[in-house]
Amino acid sequence: MRQSTIDKIERIRDWLEHRLADAETGDKLPTVKALMRTHRTAQRTVEQALRPLLDEGRLRAQPGLGLIVADPEAVEAEQWEGDLLVLYRISDSRLARSVLQEMEQRLKARGHSVLQIGYSSEEQAVALLGRLGRFKACLIQIHFEVMSIELLAELQRHARAIIVDGVSATGIDADAIGTNWREALSIAFRTLQEKGHERIGFLTSGHEARQIAMARREFELLCRWLPDPDAGRLIAMDKLPGATQIGDITAALGPLRDDNGRLPFTALIAWGIVEGFMLERGLTDLGQTIGDELSVLLLGSTDFPSEHVRRFDVIGNSHREKLDLFEKIITDRIAASSAAPTVHYLPISHVVHGSVVSPDSD
Length: 362
Prior knowledge:
By secondary structure, the protein is an alpha/beta fold. Helix content is 40%, strand content 21%. The protein has a 6-stranded parallel β-sheet. A 6-stranded mixed β-sheet has the order 10-9-11-12-13-15, with helices on both faces. The radius of gyration is 25 Å and the shape is elongated. 37% of the residues are buried.
């Protein structure tokens, strides 16, 4: 470390010491960004100056409020049960499990303690939390289900910071990380239109979770820009993303075929089928030739092979980028970052595997 950086850290720390000498418990100090501007230095330098004061319990970083003068005796009395609590609703999604397993491995490699707990109902989750102490951060995976005020309140009692896998829970005092699937759907729809498709289907979940319901609504709006607005076909299955089986696909699409076995669209967008072999098998069982008489475009993880099986074109987020972002946000919250919690949208990209062609291709 250069001497000039050490001097800046000491100068900021001395400045903070003078402010603390005249402050009372609960008083607010300037935010990290304000300290960066005042002392004309980088965030890392300010955080290094703050670290001893946070560790001693003289300052407390509270998401949304900034730096708060704390009572060291009260902080000393607070015992952490662990660094990270991972609370997840049990589901059939291999992709969802992969996120949790990878995060546990990464956090433990950094020396952090991690406790994972699965639950099947919110009542069970609240009961389980009641037996635990406090954690520096909690990663919760609700898998598109509703998170009640009761569960959120219980989480706030047991975790200093909350990180939500998915952006279905927004507008609360927590970080949310995920993909804007309406944006991904719009890109997919436009991609198919540019290829010349005028009859497009959307196979998805019929669940009322906000993200899913908004995607269905988005598709219906996009269909208005087709030459024949009625040429768009929404097919909603009674399954959550990740729970779809081959039989669900054939049952949803089979009755739509005409006497010649053709579906009423030349292109299909599919979202929520996280095992690509199921979609391929279902379409094959229905006699559909993928990439020929039927173009197929998945919404999902671009680099999770079991989802697109290197067979389907896919639009969505990078699984690797998602894991990297989770790791950064979680480690920041464990370290008591004073940054306000927010929604972190993942960038969207398009990977081609050859399942989309023009409808008039030979």
